[in-house]
Amino acid sequence: MSTNRRKFLKQFGSTILLSSAGLSSLAAKEDMDRRILFSEKRITANDKIRIATIGMGIMGFNDTYAALTVPGVELAGVCDLYTGRLQRAKEVFGQTLFVTSDYRQILDRKDIDAVIIATSDNWHSRIAIEAMRKGKAVYSEKPMVHYISEGLAEIQAQKETKAVFQVGSQRVSSVAYQKARELYHSGAIGKINSIEASFNRQSALGAWQYTIPLDAGPQTVDWARFQEPEKVKHDYDNNRFFRWRNYREYGTGVAGDLFVHLLSGIHFITGSKGPDKIYSIGNTVFWKDGRNVPDVMSAVLEYPDTKEHPAFQVTLRVNFISGEGDRSTTKIVGSEGVIDLSGEGDGFTLYKNKMPVAPGIGGWDSLFTYPEAMQKQLMANYNKKYSATDQATPATDKILYHAPDGYNASNDHFANFMDSIRTGKPVVENAVFGFRAAAPCLACNDSYFENKVIHWDAENMRIV
Fold first, then answer.
1. What 8-state DSSP symbol labels residue 217?
2. Please, which residues have CB within 8 angstroms of residue 370's CB and are 6 or more apart in sequence?
3. How far is Cα 61 from Cα 232, in angstroms, rounded to an integer?
4. Does an H or E element contain 413, and which?
5. Which pTM does this prediction carry?
6. Where are the alpha helices (DSSP H) in 114-255?
7. Domains of the chain
8. Please, are residues 144 and 237 in contact by the beta-carbon 8 Å criterion?
9. What single DSSP character describes residue 67?
10. Longest dimension (CA), the chain
11. Rounded to an integer, what distance in angstroms lies between the CA atom of residue 409 and that of residue 176?
12. Pairing with 97, which of 195, 214, 359, 381 sits 20 to 30 Å away (CA)?
């Protein structure tokens, strides 16, 4: 056993804080052990995977870094529509790196096994379908589609080509979310009834006002190709290219960027296929910078009773000017407890609260409003019917779970993707799962802009 592996396993065991209530860390340790053994496995020439990244913005660079943490993965090329990012890619990954502004040149390369699609949302589906038809494995950033109408065609393309296709919502690979799912399905919180999930931010960068390069302009940006999918063409605009998330034409707003993360985690834990009713409201409260999507948005999604779960309600919220600061949480509420997940898969706290057998009497109750003699009789009847044990609230301990220091769910997500390429095993987030997470979020946009309730058929993945 290597020193690093031994140190990491020791650290992993020490960072899980568990109560005596019966949650065992054995399964989590075994899973981490398997991952570490896999990461140390000697990679042969035949096991090597050559990747290329299409779209070298924030997610493109970060996804590339995460992919290269997997042994045996090599970067063969990158594509971007801004020349400065191609220059930067060569600075970071080597001057011999193949770079281009035309993604089709990437897809035509026979020595490239897989592509990461990290472009603006309006290009996700088109490039993914072309890549699968060219025989490439595809890692598509979320949301996998720009419009709901694109989803079924992309799913069909994956079925026809049998290409390895994974959507990039890293919570699905998080060890914390895996353990939360185990607890949920074991009945640790009783019967689910509601979920509250939110993303809060309080910074210009968090609100997508990203830094614009000094040489930005039509001479360094392939503006025509960027807006090629759009029916309405605009004159070149720095903000529309470098801050595209702020515009419906190229992005999907807070719903497509952040609600998708929340729903991916929720669906993974609960096994749900999705809601049947969706309604959202919002506003541009603070960041009045020309964007045409809200900076504060809330949605209510109704999940019906299905074979996977009882009926429950989900509330989603994003606030880009929150006095709480940068914070994300998902609270899965059941009849006997709550799983409170924080961050991007860093850990969770499980709170147990079980009601006593007896319904209670006195205190904030109408008992004191009755005649004194009647009060005494009611109390006597109550104590005769319910024992002291029945009247006591069951004692419970909270459970804390923390992933190891330095743990990164994105690295695990890419490790799972590469493992599927090498072994043929199913990916952890396929096109159907990815679309079922994305579509209700995009429906939140439809609800907001059209001011109506959206009815969704989660089984058949279509708007009713």
1. S
2. 378
3. 30
4. helix 409-423
5. 0.90
6. 124-133, 151-161, 175-185, 223-226, 238-242, 253-254
7. 21-171 (3.40.50.720), 175-356+392-408+431-463 (3.30.360.10)
8. no
9. H
10. 93
11. 9
12. 214
